Amino acid sequence: MFRGQFEHAMDGKGRVALPSRYRDALTRAGDARLVVTRGLTDPCLDVYPMKSWEDLEARVAALPRFDPGVVKLRRLYVSAAVECDLDGQGRLLVPQALRELAKLDKGVFWAGMTTKAELWSAEEWARVNADSTFDGEQLHKLGAELKL
Fold first, then answer.
1. Mind giving me the DSSP string for 48-94?
2. Is the pLDDT of residue 31 over 90?
3. Bridge-partner residues for 56, per DSSP?
4. DSSP helix/strand/coil, 136
5. pLDDT (tens digit per residue) in 36-61
6. For domain 5-146, is the CATH number 3.40.1550.20?
7. Residue 88: other Cβ atoms inside 10 A
8. Contacts of 53-59 spanning 24+ positions with Cβ under 8 A
9. Under a CB-based contact definition with an 8 Å cutoff, are residues 102 and 122 in contact?
10. How many other CB atoms are there within 10 angstroms of residue 45's CB atom?
11. Distance, C-alpha 115 to centroid of its chain
12. Nearest to residue 48, comparing CAs of 89, 14, 6, 77?
C-alpha cells in the first residue's frame, strides 16, 4: 500500500501532509484513518492504515500475555499508538510526544514500507542511511526467501 520516499515540511503545529500517493491508496482502501506510534528499532514513527493496525493488534493479542517481551512490546509500541485523522488538506497532526520521540521538526521524510509508512526527521533519515552498504549474505538470504 505504501511505496516510495517523499520529503515534506512539518508546520509549527505539528501537521504534515501525507504524500498524495499514500492518500490515494487509503482512498482506494475505503478508510482514511491512520494510527501513529513510535518506531521500535529506529528513531522514527510508524504510520499504519487502520486496517493494518487492527490486524497487528489482533496478532499481538494472540501472543502470550505474561511473556516479558510481549509485555514490553505492548508498553512501548501498542500503548504509544494514537489514532489520527487527516484534515481537509490531507495533513496529519502528529502528537507532540511522538514528535519529540522521533525528533521531528520542520524537515520530515516519508518512507513507504508496504503495509505501513515511516515518518522520519530528515536529518535522522540521512544519518541512519549514510551507510547504505548491505551485507551480501543477508541480501542473498532475503532474495531466496522472496524467490527473487
1. EEHHHHHHHHHHHHTS-TT-HHHHHHIIIIITT-EEE-B-TTSEEE-
2. no
3. none
4. helix
5. 999 999 999 999 999 999 999 999 99
6. yes
7. 5
8. 53/81
9. no
10. 26
11. 9
12. 77
Does residue 83 contact residue 63 with C-beta atoms inside 8 Å?
no
CB 19 within 8 A of CB 98: no
Mean pLDDT in the chain? 93
Residue 148 pLDDT class (50, 70, 90 cuts): confident
Domain spans, the chain: 5-146
Q: Bigger pLDDT: 148 or 87? A: 87
Residue 90 scores a pLDDT above 80 = yes
Picking from 127, 110, 117, the residue whose alpha carbon sits closest to that of residue 6 is 110
Reading the block at residue 136, the C-alpha cell is: 551480501
Q: Which residues pair with 2 in a beta bridge?
A: 114
Contact 1, 49 (CB under 8 A): yes
- C-alpha span between 69 and 83 (Å, rounded): 24
